[in-house]
Design goal:
87 residues, 4 helices
């Protein structure tokens, strides 16, 4: 992580930041979906901690194996490349 802080414009740093932002977005989406469910809350706070940890791991796994496009957009913006033109 220290190497990424030294050169924040490197492709590796941009890729790492984009992946983390995409994973954070997915984690927030999973949490919102869980909060909106009609299920009963089991054991209150303790179960919530485990569910948050599970959501975080699922979000990281999805972001590493599935391209949602958010990471690609962030990479393009952070690297200063222009957006593709629509016909």
């Amino acid at each position: 992580m220290a190497a990424l802080k030294l050169d924040p414009t490197s492709p590796q740093a941009i890729s790492a930041v984009a992946s983390q932002v995409e994973a954070l977005f997915l984690q927030m989406m999973l949490k919102s979906m869980r909060d909106a469910s009609m299920g009963d809350e089991l054991d209150g706070n303790e179960m919530g901690v485990y569910q948050d940890m599970f959501d975080k791991q699922v979000a990281l796994t999805i972001s590493q194996h599935q391209d949602l496009g958010i990471g690609a957009i962030l990479k393009r913006q952070l690297s200063g490349k222009p957006a593709p033109r629509c016909a």
